[in-house]
Write a structure and sequence with these properties.
The protein is an alpha+beta fold. Helix content is 30%, strand content 29%.
Length: 152
Amino acid sequence: MEQGDAIPAVTVTTAAGEPLALRELAGPLVVYFYPKDDTSGCTREAQDFTALAPAFADAGVRVIGMSKDSPAKHRRFAEKHALTVELASDEDGAACEAFGVWGEKMLYGKTYMGIERATFLFGRDGRLVQSWRKVKVPGHAEAVLEAARALS
């Protein structure tokens, strides 16, 4: 995804099990990808976006967190950590491929395929305004909020 690109025409599944066509959503919109529910970094990131949810709402920005975990796993994750950020499931990997976040990763010397932690901010016109790749969690949600506020 490059600046100015349109939101990909992919459909994911909400934690409630409903289909969600990303291109049909009105902007501004934040889509953040994370590797796996209930891991330390992913939990912290979801908690940070949850804590800032009222500020994103005040700025008129919808935030969706996405991984390949199932809708049921998202529901358990949200309940366990009192998350209010919207979570979506990309079980077939279509959104990961469209956003370019699926790729080779390394952990403890082992190479595997997985989701790169990345965030995408789309403007009212549905075009990519800013992206963050290889995200480090501390302070990230605040940086995204600052960029989102600059849109209005």
